[in-house]
Amino acid sequence: MVGVAVGVLVVATAGLGAWVYGDFAPALYEPMEPAAGVGSLSAQQCRVCHAEIHDEWASSGHARAFDDPLYQAELRHQPTTFVCHRCHTPLREQRPSETHGLWMAWPAIIPLSWPNDGFDPALQREGVTCVSCHQVDGHMLGPFDDAAGAPHPTRKAELRAVETCARCHQFGFERIGRLDRPIIDTVTEWHEYRERGGRERCADCHMPTEDARPAANGGRLRPHTNHRLFGPFDREFVAKGVIVEDLELVIDEPNVARASLVLVNGTGHRLPSAEPERYVRVHLSARGADDELLAERELRMERPVDVARLRELGPDTTLAPGERRRLTLELTDLPPDASTVRIAVDFHLWRNGELAREAGLDGDDLVHSIVQRSASRAP
Ligand code: HEC
Ligand code: HEC
Ligand code: HEC
Ligand code: HEC
Ligand code: HEC
């Protein structure tokens, strides 16, 4: 009896493993050969001729996708990590081992992995490297139809299309665990932005076209694509997506402060999108003579998710694409020693203080101030 039960359990869990694995397979990329005339998959080789583009990319979140301290900190707390490598080190040549299936011994997921002969540790540290967007069938895809001077094969392609970004910025499966929608859902959100009349594609905002420059050292002038990748760590860029209108702050009765504003989503997706650690906070506070905090109220635009247990931890208050939301906050019973009241709108990059400290980040590193206004109280 026991033998049969164990047998049934083994077959059932193996079946479940294959089903879960089926959602992640096939891998994003087939094994890749270096392109003729380049001889390597590494950005270090592209740099020899595309120095400026390389240096922009090197300062981007994509170049950090593997050695990003937040990623490394989160990895250390994950029971299984094979799924993370899929997007953060997307090429097969970037992974020390390959996973070919899963055993589900509920609640544990045991990957069936073996060493990868083609592993290149230096390439692993490049994260989302040049060839993951540019190389297909040994050709470099790009905007030009006259790149005859290139030492490598080239092909004209519409790389600004959302498909270039979609394989990593959207989880394929609709439902997993007890989540209402995928944790990474940016492309679906972008389609909603387009339906509401939005015009830009991902790369138009995040990798804009700039003044003409040579695409390769010594080449002729071409429209230039900024590879720095503007994103949430850049305050000026974030301020284009977190727009505050009609801000009012009044103390209209001796002990009552009221603030109201319209928060506009200026991004091409929900605000915030993807990473559930980020949130926008609207904060009304009463302050004493030395700026000490005496009373406060806050509203958060966020989607708190337990990423390990795959469930929502509260209501999703992120702004829909194009949404304009009127928000009001009130402090009644202002303390007698409150000399000013302040309204502040901030963008928070990371809520989990412990993980952030482990990654060497803290305090001001993790908050962009978008707008702040104060009003004094009549003595
Ligand atoms: C489907 C592709 C995909 C998978 C699988 C994936 N990630 Fe990510 N990850 C992303 C994308 C895209 C972002 C950027 C999202 C954003 O900035 O909001 C990101 C951002 C992050 C960040 C934030 C980095 C920062 O500097 O803000 C961390 C940490 C992270 N991922 C950890 C993980 C871990 C751990 C796993 C495995 C459990 C994982 N990711 C699996 C695509 C993926
Ligand atoms: C030995 C020099 C050299 C190396 C190495 C090199 N390239 Fe190029 N590449 C060029 C030149 C020259 C051009 C043509 C520029 C022009 O026409 O203005 C070019 C063009 C391109 C284009 C535009 C293609 C098009 O049709 O629009 C892309 C994309 C590209 N390279 C990517 C890469 C990547 C990625 C690497 C590294 C894997 C790399 N290149 C390595 C010299 C090089
Ligand atoms: C091969 C997978 C992959 C592709 C393709 C890809 N991304 Fe990413 N992207 C990631 C990962 C992984 C991260 C998280 C990096 C990190 O850990 O900081 C990320 C982060 C980002 C960020 C946040 C950067 C930051 O400063 O934190 C933006 C913005 C972004 N990607 C935009 C794009 C756009 C636009 C495209 C298409 C032109 C694109 N990505 C294509 C995997 C990818
Ligand atoms: C996240 C995807 C992504 C990554 C990673 C990436 N590129 Fe690009 N690249 C693009 C997009 C999108 C364009 C613009 C194509 C267009 O306008 O049609 C582009 C354009 C180019 C061009 C054409 C010239 C120009 O300025 O438009 C060259 C050359 C190029 N990239 C080389 C590189 C090199 C070298 C690396 C690595 C150091 C790299 N790219 C990394 C997406 C990427
Ligand atoms: C209209 C311009 C615009 C378009 C189009 C756009 N974005 Fe963004 N995106 C922004 C702005 C502004 C921010 C900074 C505010 C923020 O971090 O939410 C941002 C933030 C992000 C982030 C960080 C997540 C977050 O909310 O903190 C990722 C990842 C990202 N975008 C990816 C994409 C991808 C992938 C696409 C296409 C499917 C895309 N974006 C289309 C403007 C745009």
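^ heme C complex. The chain is about 25% helix and 30% strand. Residues 2-24 form the longest helix (23 residues).
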